[in-house]
Amino acid sequence: MAAAKLEDADALIDSVETFIFDCDGVIWKGDKLIDDGVPETLDLLRSKGKRLVFLTNNSTRSRKQYGSKFRTLGLTVDEEEIFSSSFAAAAYLQSIHFPKDKKVYVIGEEGIINELELAGFQCLGGPSDADKKIELTPGFYMEHDKDVGAVVVGFDRYFNYYKVQYGTLCIRENPGCLFIATSRDTVFQLNGVQEWAGGGSMVGAILGSTKQEPVVVGKPSTFMMDYIAKKFGITTSQICMVGDMLDTDILFGQNGGCKTLLVLSGVTSHEMLQSHNNSIHPDLYTNQISDLLAVKAATV
Fold first, then answer.
1. CATH homologous superfamily of 87-216
2. Is 291 tagged catalytic?
3. Which of 169, 224, 228, 297 has its CA 20 to 30 A from that of 259?
């Protein structure tokens, strides 16, 4: 079924109580807002009593760091409204009562380390392993910490062979060691200029060496949808998921039973949406989130 173009913003806004926004490609690209209408759009939705939630698969920052980015871009967003996949990793470990005497090896950046430590977990790896190398000399044996009970893999600009081997050893040799992925995104809009290989490439390397499927805590897994719905006491049918990626954002909304709105300001083009190869169809699509401002004309 082909997606319908957003024509009646008023009807959409009135039909839900919560909007969940993806960030990269929806709110911003790199370090710039998608368009000048973003702040006005968010203000309008708040003025109509809508709850706003911001959900990103980008694990490089913590919620606190994302709060700072929103402020830098001139947006007033409370830290409690922000949910990153780095936070999701920590929330997942809390939800399964991960033992506090066990450690977490991180293949990723400081956002994951910050959120895990904030939740009280012992971490190793992450940025501190960025420059480590392995010399494959005859007889070399690589040691690893036997107390690691989970390996968390996210987007990592400093990905290297040392991290692959260390994570692989933990998963293969530590009994019951978990393999957790913050996301399996194929692309990442790192600087707003071009698309870059996403966190899925790092996850794929560990999957390839361990032959173990990860537990995915970011979109399109419903873990964060369930978490957000429970935290705020929302029925998922009262949520509209707004995103720019079909296989993460829109699928996430569909998996969670939400309304879905695709914006064409990020990864997905109109041609990709309409392609016969595409099997994921949002309820509605539009060019950018400021198209929701069309509601103003009906309320004046």
1. HAD superfamily/HAD-like (3.40.50.1000)
2. no
3. 297
